[in-house]
C-alpha cells in the first residue's frame, strides 16, 4: 500500500490574512490542490483537507490548512496526524521564513523553530521537531518595521510579480520531497537559479 504523507500549509484563517506573507504556506497548499483538481473541505480536526495522490500509483497526499491561528497550529496538525496515522517523518510543513530572502526556498528536517511560533507549536504538539519543512523565504522587513507586522502585511506589488512562480516552485519542492526524498529536493531547490 502507498505511504500517506500529510502536507500542511501554515497561516491564519479568514479574508483579513488571505494574501499576507504569513499565509504563503496556505497558498502553496492551494496550488498543490489545484494541480490535482481538488478542493479543500472541512475536516473534524479543525482544518480544511483535500485527499489526493502524488501521481497515479504514488504516495497518498493529504493536503491541509489548519483553521486555527498560526501560533496554535499544533492541535490541528497532531489531530490530522493521528486521524491519517502519519508519523512525523511524513508530515511536511510549508511555512513562511523571515531568515530566507524573498523568492528563495529551503528544505530541511528537524532543527529549531527559529522564533516561528507556528513551528514551535507543531513541534510541541507532535512531541518532536523532526518533521520535514519547506521554508518559503519572505525576507526581513525593511528599516525598523516590526517582523510581527511585516508577516501580517500583504506582499508588495513588486513581490507579487514573482509570487505565483515562488508558490509554484514551493509546490514543486513538496512533490520532489515526497517523491524522491529530502536530498533530491534540496539539490534542486538550494542551487542558484539559472
Explain this structure to me?
TRNA binds at residues 17, 69, 71, 117. With 194 residues, the chain is an alpha/beta fold. 36% of the residues lie in helices and 21% in strands. The chain has a single domain (4-189), classed as Rossmann fold (3-Layer(aba) Sandwich), CATH 3.40.50.1470. The protein has a 7-stranded mixed sheet, sandwiched between helices. A hairpin with a 6-residue loop joins strand 3 and strand 4 (60-66). Helix 1 (24-35) crosses helix 5 (157-180), helix 2 crosses helix 3 (117-126) and helix 5 (157-180) runs antiparallel to helix 6 (182-189).
Q: Using the alpha-carbon principal axes, give the shape.
A: globular
Number of domains: 1
Biggest beta sheet summary: 7 strands, mixed
End-to-end C-alpha gap: 38 Å
Please state the structural category.
Answer: alpha/beta
CATH architecture: 3-Layer(aba) Sandwich
Radius of gyration: 15 Å
Low-confidence stretches are none
Beta-strand percent range: 15-25%
Overall average pLDDT: 94
Number of strands: 7
The CATH class is identified as Alpha Beta
Classify the fold: give the CATH topology: Rossmann fold
The helix fraction, in percent, is 25-40%
- SSE pattern: EHEEEHEEHEHHH
By CATH's scheme, which homologous superfamily applies?
Peptidyl-tRNA hydrolase
What's the total helix number? 6
Amino acid at each position: 500500500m502507498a505511504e500517506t504523507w500529510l502536507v500542511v500549509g501554515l497561516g491564519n484563517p479568514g479574508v483579513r490574512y488571505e494574501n499576507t506573507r504569513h499565509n504563503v504556506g496556505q497558498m502553496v497548499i492551494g496550488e498543490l490542490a489545484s494541480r490535482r483538481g481538488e478542493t479543500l473541505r472541512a475536516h473534524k480536526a479543525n482544518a480544511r483537507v483535500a485527499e489526493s495522490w502524488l501521481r497515479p500509483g504514488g504516495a497518498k497526499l493529504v493536503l491541509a490548512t489548519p483553521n486555527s491561528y498560526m501560533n496554535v497550529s499544533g492541535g490541528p496538525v497532531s489531530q490530522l496526524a493521528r486521524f491519517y496515522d502519519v508519523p512525523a517523518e511524513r508530515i511536511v510543513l510549508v511555512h513562511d521564513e523571515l531568515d530566507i530572502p524573498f523568492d528563495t526556498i529551503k528544505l530541511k528536517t528537524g532543527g529549531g523553530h527559529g522564533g516561528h511560533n507556528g513551528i514551535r507549536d507543531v513541534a510541541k504538539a507532535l512531541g518532536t521537531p523532526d518533521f520535514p519543512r519547506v521554508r518559503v523565504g519572505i525576507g526581513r522587513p525593511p528599516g525598523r518595521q516590526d517582523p510581527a507586522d511585516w508577516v501580517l502585511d500583504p506582499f508588495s506589488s513588486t513581490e507579487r510579480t514573482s509570487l505565483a512562480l515562488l508558490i509554484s516552485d514551493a509546490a514543486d519542492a513538496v512533490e520532489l520531497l515526497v517523491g524522491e526524498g529530502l536530498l533530491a529536493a534540496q539539490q534542486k531547490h538550494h542551487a542558484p537559479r539559472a
